[in-house]
Amino acid sequence: MPPPVKVQLLPHDPQWAEKAAAEANALALAMGPTLLTVHHVGSTAVPGIRAKPILDLIPVVKCLPELERRRADLEALGYEWWGEFGLPGRRYCTKADPVTARRLVQLHCYVEGSSEIVRHLAFRDYLRERPDVAAAYDREKARCQSLHPDNSHAYGDCKNAWIRKIESEALAR
Asked: Considering the entire predicted model, what is its pTM?
């Protein structure tokens, strides 16, 4: 399990989308035909709200055994492999800056057709389309950061009920 990190929320940076695209290209080169597409999700993918400066990406793969055979290719890009990390059907990887050890990217790898992909995309798109909901999420994130400034795991748990409620709204559309 990766250790918790300090929760730093920064104003939205338009370069996050560019960095996500560059990382998606690097993943495509490393993984070849195993990788079908990469989605940029999480708060760095939603303009107008603060986010931890860590890119959340969903690499969509043909099948998990093929992905697992490419583990060394991901590790060669600087990723640490954490397995399912509490979510069946997911393969979770993190990438940190080799000098500062600051986490830069989190991969949430799923097989094509996973309902988890649909859930993440619905939440992201709902926030993009509804600035009022995005602003409420920004406030919830600030509240959770104030309660858990040094523990990203507890911060994530704090936001969970709010996220689940909005996800169900987004999926019901």
From this structure: 0.94
Contacts of 38 (CB under 8 A, 6+ apart): 20, 23, 24, 27, 28, 57, 58, 59, 60
- Is residue 1 pLDDT above 80, yes or no? no
Dist. CA 127–CA 122, nearest whole Å: 9
**Chain center to CA of 169:** 20
Candidates 165, 167, 170, 137; CA nearest to 9 is 137
Give pLDDT tens digits for 131-169. Answer: 999 999 999 999 999 999 999 999 999 999 999 999 999
| 13: Cβ contacts below 8 Å, ≥ 6 apart | 44, 53
Contact 103, 110 (CB under 8 A): no
CA-wise closest residue to 148 among 52, 6, 26, 41: 6
Residue 154, φ and ψ in degrees, nearest 5? -65, -35
Q: In this structure, are residues 146 and 9 in contact, taking their beta carbons and an 8 Å threshold?
A: no
